[in-house]
Design brief:
The protein has helices at about 15-30, 45-50, 65-70, 90-95, 120-135, 150-155, 170-185, 200-210, 225-230, 245-255; strands spanning about 5-10, 35-40, 95-100, 100-105, 140-145, 160-165, 190-195, 215-220. It is α/β, with parallel strands linked by helices.
Amino acid sequence: MGLKLAIGGKGGVGKTTVTSLLARCLAKTNKKVIAIDADPVSNLAAGLGIDEDKPITPISELKDLIFERTGAKPGTMGGFFTLNPKVDDIPDRFSLEKDGVKLLVMGTVQTGGSGCICPESTILKALMNHLVLYRDDVVVMDMEAGIEHLGRGTSGSMDGLIIIVNPGKRSRVAAEKIKKLGSDIGIKNIYVIGNRIKSELDKDLIKESMKDFTILGFIPEYEEIANADREGIRPFDDISTIPEEFQTIVDKLLSK
């Protein structure tokens, strides 16, 4: 089976940018990579270099598909509908691909929250189960802090939860909460990547304050990443120019 990774972190730490660069690095090693945008406020498409003009309909908003597969109209709760809908064709039918990375946008459940007993939630969880348990692709998930799309049955098969942190205290406190959430649903391997590191003092602060975490590496504050974020484009458009810190992290993940 391919590597399965969930990536979380407090808003503003650079989680989506790091996720996109790790996905592109993994694709560079000739792996089949599926990147999952499961954070309602992220834009993984831009980080992967997918043109904004290409329409991306989140899976949770494919009303006809959801009705066809579950037998219930989206927006309804309770009642009778299929709890194990067919989803194996969704990754190939509804993804967009760029440079060897397929992007799937999960979307959110508008009625009742992500834990509701509703057809949209059923489709999303069945799809996540399929991606983690039955596909041989490398799967990299840009998750919201609550890692809501991962159920207990799925999470136990994840190879790791990577939490992106900045040196700031709020980022590190959020990492502790995300770690607990991940542990509670059965994720065994939980890692940290320090991002936007400006000095050795930043590294030492993260190391000292996060001794219970396995640290995969540190990513400096790169001007190219900051400029790309301002312009809404992907940094290091030529992936062969990506800084060695990213490749070192990918090598560690593949060796684990």
